[in-house]
Design a protein that fits this description.
Blueprint (H helix, E strand, L loop, with lengths): L20 H21 L3 E6 L6 E4 L1 H7 L4 H8 L12 H10 L5 E9 L5 E12 L5 E9 L1 H15 L4 E6 L6 E4 L1 H7 L3 H6 L10 H15 L4 E9 L5 E13 L2 E10 L1 H24 L6 E6 L4 E7 L12 H11 L3 H10 L2 H6 L18 E13 L5 E14 L3
Antiparallel strand pairs: 1-2, 1-5, 3-4, 4-5, 6-7, 6-10, 8-9, 9-10, 11-12, 11-14, 13-14
Helix pairs in contact: 10-11
């Protein structure tokens, strides 16, 4: 009898029962090859740690080592002292610890954090994290990471641009609540809320839009969108301190991954609205007084928009009429100067009240005791020039119109 071959096997702690260990090694080798192929096919890096204090190192793949600038796994482990927490940015420690606490109730989560490279700089990563149980029964997490450093840089540059634009700038979805996606500091400064407080309210503009305005806002927007992608509205917002402010808002509609969104810019126009209300109330009072004081000899009162060169409103008895609604400012000044008794006064009115001169000055002018024998003997005439401020979308106070108040009554009063 001859012995054709001999087989020797050394007992292994990994071998169990009737396991054929050479076959096990083949299976393990195939599994390792599959894992290497999977690692190479994943576009991002992979890193893992045990869920214990300090986050002890579990594994890292080749792509992740490349992201961090290391040549070997041993070099990386030695540099961090075997603890993943040592390569996480200090400002993200609490975030990572809080995120890992979530694994007590869920199997996975996504987060963004910074890891230190070999050269000491940090890169931003978006990590999809999943909880696993390792071969030795210990709980651990592994994270599939994507380098988002450039996106973060662009986002910060955009936010810096946002914060240097006067007024509030934000993006929101065109949904029932006008959900805010991102915003500059101007929005929160205007409303008086911190970003965290606004987030706790749902990050939605509907929480701060005046209810009466919100009820009709969607219909107003849709009507404007029939003629283009740009809208312009004026409505009220309720601030944290309970005050109500008026805003002038312009927005551009665009599509983002099939989602309708608005890019919005608004400025505070509360003072303009209050001034407009005061002017309207004063004018109503003036018209009321005019009606009571008008006499049979004749009276006139009106308002001229000098910037737009037209009479906005005018009220007079037929005998005392100087102009009509729609007349130009130059026509009124010509009629006024032509009706003066004193030629010197006529020349002074024409020279001093020339439209181009009035438009350049912010002074208030008053003229009294000008006689108009051809219109109404014994009358005095008063003209007052004033300007109305209006904020433009850059936040600067401009002067959108210059107005003139005309008043005339009989000298017997």
């Amino acid at each position: 009898m001859s012995i054709c071959n001999l087989h020797f096997a050394e007992p292994s702690i990994h071998q169990s029962g009737s396991e054929h260990y050479p076959q096990t090694l083949v299976v393990e080798n195939l599994a390792r090859q599959r894992q290497d192929l999977f690692d190479a096919s994943v576009p991002g890096g992979m890193i893992g740690c045990y869920i214990t204090p300090g986050l002890p190192f579990y594994f890292i793949n080749r792509q992740m080592l490349n992201h961090l600038g290391y040549g070997t796994e041993q070099e990386f482990v030695s540099d961090i002292g075997g603890m993943i927490i040592n390569c996480i940015h200090p400002g993200d420690h609490r975030l990572i610890n809080n995120a890992n606490e979530l694994l007590q109730t869920m199997e996975s989560y996504a987060t963004e954090y910074r890891l230190k490279k070999k050269n000491g700089t940090y890169i931003w990563l978006h990590g999809a994290v999943r909880k696993v149980i390792t071969e030795d029964g210990r709980p651990a997490v592994y994270s599939v990471c994507f380098d988002i450093t450039e996106q973060k840089k662009l986002r910060n540059e955009l936010l810096h641009l946002y914060n240097n634009i006067p007024g509030a700038v934000f993006r929101c979805r065109f949904d029932a609540d006008f959900s805010v996606i991102d915003a500059n500091d101007g929005l929160f400064d205007f409303l008086g809320y911190t970003r965290e407080e606004f987030a706790s309210m749902g990050n939605k503009m509907s929480a701060v839009i005046y209810p009466d305005d919100l009820a009709v806002m969607t219909d107003k927007i849709r009507n404007q969108l029939k003629s283009g992608n740009t809208i312009h509205n004026e409505h009220r917002l309720i601030c944290k301190d309970g005050s109500i402010k008026w805003i002038s808002i312009k927005a551009q509609l665009f599509q983002e991954s099939g989602d309708e969104q608005f890019f919005c810019v608004f400025v505070d126009m509360t003072e303009e609205k209050l001034m407009q209300a005061r002017n309207e109330e004063l004018y109503r009072q003036e018209m009321s007084n005019f009606a009571m004081l008008s006499s049979r000899e004749g009276s006139i009162q009106g308002r001229i928009n000098i910037s737009q060169d037209r009479v906005e409103n005018y009220l007079s008895t037929t005998k005392a009429a100087l102009c009509h609604v729609g007349d130009t400012y130059d026509q009124i000044i010509f009629n006024l100067a032509d009706s003066a008794v004193d030629p010197a006064i006529s020349e002074k009115i024409s020279r001093t009240m020339a439209r181009d001169k009035v438009c350049r000055t912010g002074n208030a002018w008053e003229y009294r005791r000008y006689r108009y024998p051809s219109l109404c003997p014994g009358q005095t005439f008063t003209m007052k020039i004033f300007r109305r401020p209006y904020p433009d979308l850059s936040g600067n106070m401009g002067w959108s119109r210059k107005n003139c108040i005309l008043r005339s009554r009989s000298s017997i009063y």
